[in-house]
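Holo prediction — pyridoxal-5'-phosphate.
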Amino acid sequence: MPGIDKNSGPFNLTLNREARAGLSEQIRSEITQAIREGRLKAGARMPSCRDLAVQLGVARGTVRAAYDMLADSQLLVAKGAAGTFVTRYPPATPAKATPSAVTMPLSDIAYDFDAPPLTFQMGVPAEDAFPVNVWSRILQRHARTMSGRPMSYPDPRGSLALRQELVAWLAMARGVNCQAEQIIITNGYAGALGLICLAMNFHASQAWIEEPGYLLACKALALVGIEPVPISVDEQGILVSEGIARAPQASFALVTAGQQAPLGMTLSPVRRSELLAWAEENNRWIVDDDYLGELQLGSRAAPALASLDTAGRVMHIGTFSKTLSPSLRLGFVVVPPALAARFADIAAVVAPASSFVLHNAVAEFLREGHFLRHLRRMKRIYADRLEKMIEALTPSFPELRRGALAVVIMLPPGSADRAIAREALAWGMAPSPLSAWYQRDELRQYGLVLGATNMPREGFLPGVQKLRQLVDAHGISLSLAVKF
Ligand SMILES: Cc1ncc(COP(=O)(O)O)c(C=O)c1O
């Protein structure tokens, strides 16, 4: 094709010497696209200006001008003699609709898998607080030890070392007394919930879920053939009396007793005893999602519901997704003694625990006190970030409500919170629309739930100001925001 150079470099740069756009601009635009499409990964080293200039047959200054523009738009970062790199957190651009044969079933709640957390994103621990060095040292050691072991099948409940550490940890941190035989290591909370539904034959029954409540849990139940019945929460947590009135036949209640998701209140002592009494008297079950049990800021966490369970009706789920990393896919369920054998059998045949390398590494991390130190540090960081976020939000948003590791901006009834959340994605922010946490239209509240765990380098203020612009663009009058 006359006039067109095709140069297959690392990102297939195509320059058109007849185009109106200058060569620097073309290079800038191609590299931007390669970064956006993930062909150039975050942190990747760029070729030097000289090498790329030679490769493309252009002057070195042409490439340098393109790199400078990319650095200005925060897509590249120049590190002196070390070279030029793709930034680790490229700013987002308005997302283009990419045609896809498969519609994402979780599109409302899940963002790009494997992408770094966005500003205000809920449910992801602080990236910069993870103890990378100590963790990788331990992990490597266990990977080496494991390589020399016989090629046999491991215990489907997970490594005994980790289960024993969890026995000690749960007694100390969550007030739960149990034996290692009652613990089954799972693929996070989601894996534990799946195992419970299978082992307990909950199919075709009803379950109480909290409203507002964790959307993925609601979806999970519906997908496996359990009818989720939303039950309101108030300042004391789930309204047990409403549950009894609305779904007396429910086979179990799924609760976040420690810190309600997303509002953050702790299930009160009165509600705890009502819930336990309901389960005990009617042979029903309670599944406690203790996902933030270890991350109570400010005060000491109330003991987990299982610590009060004398009748063996509570299944306690823990996860390392919030305390270490969701990428580990590591959690566990503690079941009452009478169910331990049944759970072990089901785990053995359909849901065996994941690699012991990981289990044993986490066991050592707990045993050596790293976990406790890490949690202390995270709590300090989160408390500080939460305060900073509230400080940044207060002038722009009058009606705020504190969650656990989050803040809720309350908006007037009927506000377009889902649209605002979608638009915010284009600015590298992932607030969660409060209305999506509700099932019943007549109870639905509107707002934006903002996670405080990851703070951008420039602080929360620019994001808050952008959010306010998005809210204003929808003509929302904040003076009508409801108190919650
Ligand atoms: C309410 C709630 N429970 C549990 C989890 C953790 O799930 P998993 O352990 O599957 O990552 C989350 C994560 O966001 C959550 O919000």
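READOUT: The CA atoms of residues 28 and 66 lie 5 Å apart.
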